[in-house]
Write the structure tokens for this entry.
Amino acid sequence: MSKWKVLVTRHDTPLTGLKLLESRCDVTILSGEAPTRADLIQAIPGHDAIFLSDHSHVNAELLDVAGDKLKVVSTMSAGYEHLDVAEIKRRGIKVGHTPVVLSAAVAEVAILLLLNATRRAHEGRLLLEDGKFQPKPTTLLGNDIRGSTVGIVGLGSIGVEIVKRLISFQVERFVYTGHARKKIGDDLGAKFVTLDELLKMSDFVVVATPLTNETHGLFDDAAFDKMKKTAVFVNIGRGPVVKTDALLRALKEKKIFAAGLDVVDPEPLPKGHELFTLPNFEILPHLGSSTVKTRNDMATVAAQNIINALDGKPLVYPL
Ligand code: DGY
């Protein structure tokens, strides 16, 4: 029997995933450091599956070129805003992603940003570099996590891991918002509130929500206006959940204390962007899931999603 044919979109895909695929399938890997859309379109016909190790868009145009043979689209990411899921499923093609296995790593980055922002790490470094640091009792005072109220926007798997980690920081109260109250929220002692309530009461606001029509642009001027002036804002979800200009105003006008972002719109934030000039702005270049183990696990799950689909079994994490 001929083997299934799988197209992988990047040469530097973790070997855990590639080896698993190669044990069952014929694997074609797009070559080059930055394969183009044209490369993808040229390569895809005749494949049974596509393994996305990047955020290539899978839409009607690509599916038309792929043809009837395509049975499964598997993205090595939790986020799936680059996929037209409705269109993929309408054509009877299975589609999977890799949530959960990255939640711990992303939660660690949320804590990193939260601590850096509230303890003014970047500002401190700038003062040192400029030779302007003066050790006074009031220099670079931050705000405690201990005794604070932490608000999580989106208590999914990542939000839960953030709460679990912050419990050891002696947070006074956890609140969260989303579609509905969740049992896991009750188990963690977190209170379900409206977004408005969360913004008003939280000392730390952490965005851990995916990008959807509902969350797009959720954090605008009005949202930042509702937050405490001492609040720290963290986003490890998706950049476009926040209107970047509104965040810039909030930080410049000291509507909030500081912000820490792993994701931003646009991404990467262009060189010379005004946000880089602000001492109360911490940023990472979307490193949430960037650990060796996490990326290996993501590749394994993405490969397993493909094998399961081709074997006619349920995907590990279907969409
Ligand atoms: C994800 O998996 O969605 C991470 O943000 C990396 O893209």
Notes: The two ends are 29 Å apart (CA to CA). The CA atoms of residues 107 and 162 lie 5 Å apart. The longest strand covers residues 4-8. The mean pLDDT is 97.
